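Collaborator request, handled under Task 6.
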Amino acid sequence: MKAAILSGPTAIPNYGDFIEPVPSEHRQLMSLVAAGLHPVTRAIATGEHYGGQFRWPLIPGIDAVARTADGTLVYTGWTEHPFGTFAERMAAPMGTPLPDGADPVQVAAGLNPGLSSWLPLTERAGAGPLGVVLVLGATGVAGNIAVQNALALGAEHVIAAGRNEATLETLEGQHRTTVALTGEPAHDVAALEAAFGRHRPSIVLDFVWGRPAEAAFTALGRTGLDQDEHPVTYIEIGESSGASASIPASLLRSTALTISGSGAGSADVQKLIAQIPVFASRIADGTVEIPVTTFPLADIAAAWQDATPGRRVVITGG
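Structure tokens returned to the collaborator:
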């Protein structure tokens, strides 16, 4: 079969022939319709993500909209190494049927980045009001959707922080504050402190980590010995700005701050599966819409190198 083939961690995938996947009791053969080239897709394929197998060659791709033998369109994934979803065919679990009228490209583009914030926010919303939500990395695809998700789930206010000022302008509106980050620590701390003076976050969704996280930690700091009456839940989701960030010891002692991660390994798989049809319906009815650039599977090399900001690349099949 034809597939995108990655020969090594620094290579660019080529379009070529690869062995056919073999169906099993728990995985059936289905055909590619659309698959998102998410940041985590690239990171796993190149071995930069903790979920990578570090063995090449392989077919990239972690999820997809695929067509089963009877013609049903499903959202699926969880293929076995070295197989991924950027191929004419994949052996994968049955998956979740798409809602009527759903655009397969939008589903492939939006489910992965959308669920990254939808899942932790729905869990928190089930325990009480969301309050004020800070989204670090709000100008990326996942961060942009996170702003929408927070408001949809009842956030009192959303602070959208990111570096792309043009995209930040599109996020301005009722119950929203935007913060332009520059990467310069003093500026970013001051900008976040100004926003927190009006709306101190109850929840932080961090898609970037690195220096922006350090700026947020500094801005969240307190002085004095009185008890912190404003708990903050800090949820680390992505690391596009760096794999590490320094946390001041005084921040952990002086504030009611809880830091956790949300991703494969820490997230509850059954809760994730239960939310797939819920969020797919939001995409199907147009509540969530994702800017997309599509490439046919044969153009995988161009797709892999596409650097258009604020859009999700989607690989399409037959």
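The cover message to the collaborator said: "The mean pLDDT is 95. The CA atoms of residues 27 and 92 lie 4 Å apart. Please let us know whether this matches your experimental observations."
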